[in-house]
Amino acid sequence: MKIRWKIDLAISGAFLVGLGLAGIGAYTILTKNALEESLQNARIMIEGASAIRKYTADYNWPLLEPQLKIQFLPQSVSAFAAQTTLKMVRQKLPEYTYREPTLNPTNVNDRASEWEADIINGFRDDSSKSETVTMRDTPGGRFLTLSHPLKIGSQVCLSCHSTPENAPPTMVALYGSQNGFGWKMGEVVGAQVVSIPLGVPLARAYQALFWFMLALAGTFVVTIIIVDVLLRVLVTRPVAEISEMADKVSMGQLDTPEYVHASRDEIGSLSASFNRMRRSLQNAMSMLEEQS
Q1: Cys-Cys link to 161, which of 86, 183, 220, 279 (CB 3.0-4.6 A)?
Q2: How far is it between the farthest Cα atoms of the chain?
Q3: Please, are residues 175 and 106 in contact by the beta-carbon 8 Å criterion?
Q4: How far apart are CA 284 and CA 288, in angstroms?
């Protein structure tokens, strides 16, 4: 096997090892960044929903409370305002889902599912917990879920959810007196839940990984071509020419022209040494001929 082929093979082997390590590292980093970016976006959504809830409780409720004696207005409810607003956001970002499930909701459509109830009960069991991140496998794929607890923190909530007698009669007439009551100050009754299909952020990460690996492979191909050309021009071709001249001299062709290599590298030093040896051999042969 020729020297340059051996060098090309060694470089290729080192590249494949490096490519594998780089691929593993890039996959880990890109996947982690995709998940962290998704979590950050989910936190932004929850903070936006919390701002809508506070605005509704602080500004809308005082204005709409007198009207509740005539007609119940869902716009006065913080949960309704937050969920309705973020449903509009989903028109632009359909991969994000926002819900406010509760264990004992006024509207049965807001009742927590089994997995949502587990999250809420986790907040109820540990009052210091402010956030939960879970992974769920569903028929539609794997989902990343970020949850924050919904805790009763003001009398506005209790004015509708303490007892049916204290609640607006129009609300009781609309939803009944069986659900959504018995809430207490400081109690965790539900959760803000944002769900994101992992296929969306991971698909972007895998696409970035593909282009990264493609660019890395392209860089290797260009590098190996350049190295191969340099080896052939600067090393193997001069060595082959010196070897051919050495064969001729060894066969007695002392009139073979000297090999001229102008560079001051190792090949230039080798050619100069060979030319000196050739001249010394010529002088030695001439002296033998004269003595004979």
Answers
A1: 183
A2: 138
A3: yes
A4: 6
Domains of the chain (ranges; CATH) run 42-200 (3.30.450), 215-291 (1.10.8.500)
- Residue whose structure tokens are 């069991």: 125
Output the six-digit token pair for 56.
């509704």
CB 262 within 8 A of CB 234: no
What span, in angstroms and rounded, lies between the C-alpha atoms of 284 and 127? Answer: 101
Instruction: Compute the distance between CA of residue 51 and CA of residue 78 in angstroms, rounded to an integer.
Output: 10
**Residues 78/53, Cβ–Cβ less than 8 Å:** yes
CA distances from 217 to 223, 224, 257 (A): 10, 11, 45
Tokens of 115: 């997995």
- Give the C-alpha separation, 268 to 37, whole Å: 58
How many other C-beta atoms can be found within 10 angstroms of the C-beta atom of residue 226? 10
Answer for the pair 31, 205: CB distance below 8 angstroms, yes or no. Answer: yes
Structure confidence by residue, pLDDT tens digits, 38-97: 889 889 999 999 999 999 988 888 888 888 778 888 888 888 999 999 999 888 888 789
